[in-house]
Amino acid sequence: MAEEQKQQSQAPSGAPRRDGPGGHGxxxxxGGAHGGPRREGGPGGPGGPGGRPRGKRQYFRKKKVCKFxxxxxxxxxxxxxxxxxxxxxxxxxxxxxxxTGVCSRHQRWLGVAIKRARNIAxxxxxxxxxxxxxxxxxxxAGAHPPATPTAAPHVSPAVPAAPAATEAxxx
Amino acid sequence: xxxxxxxxxxxxxxxxxxxxxxxxxSGIEHTCAEKGGKIEKTEHWGxxxxxxxxxxxxxxxxxxxxxRTAHHELIAELERRLRVQDVVIKYLTVRLDEDLKRQxxxxxxxxxxxxxxxRRATAAPAAPAAPAPxxxxxx
Lengths: 171, 139
Fold this sequence. Notes:
The structure holds 2 protein chains of 2 kinds.
Chain A: H1 2-13, H2 16-19, H3 28-31, H4 35-41, H5 67-70, H6 81-84, H7 97-100, H8 104-119, H9 129-141, H10 161-170
Helix pairs in contact in A: 1-9
Chain B: E1 4-12, H1 18-35, E2 37-54, E3 57-69, H2 72-84, E4 88-95, H3 97-129, H4 131-138
Antiparallel strand pairs in B: 1-3, 1-4, 2-3
Helix pairs in contact in B: 1-2
């Protein structure tokens, strides 16, 4: 049991891609798409597009815009797990509005959509994201050299062969 | 009674042969025909990884259907049949028509809003032009 938990906790660190919107990256993931509005707002300030590094700039908060409003989505489809997964943590928790900048109306619909998707196993319930996948995929990774397992668990089985091949000439 | 649109998704065991899936589908078709429903769409999503373990499986074959019916008993019957079947490990029915109605309404609203703005500009010069001929005709 303890070993399993260890594996689970290690797995996310080895998967930066999945980590994107979730975990500590919380607000930055989805917000990253809205670099535009921030730069537009910039010229008003002293920094502007020139981007002179100042101490004050550190505390500048970019304005988050609701992604669904920008794309004018009137209906959030629970079947599109790829969209929904941008708004949950890696373990499957729904991210709060203050992190993602989603407007209240869309957050309401989003919650319903995520809960529907959970019911049909398209999305994980909280706490089972890495847990279900890690044990199964670690086994084939064990056959590879010890350098790969950090990257292997979340990549498709065909891919780990490539890093192994590139590492071989180096050694 | 108005017709309602439902989503029906079910997951069958990953090692199920095609024939078994076809059997399930034909069963659904049969009940639909019996109770007065129409299958609008059928999609095979193929084998997908499940987000969590279901009946000790980590993968499953997804089948998606859209059903339009005015009889809610049909949905209850379909769910009962899916529950009984051994190959089906999970299913979900969702009523969609109200969401779609809301979506339609919002789209309409937006279109009106965007249409109103330019129309106002064109309506203003048109309005004074219209009464002018009437006045001319009256005098």
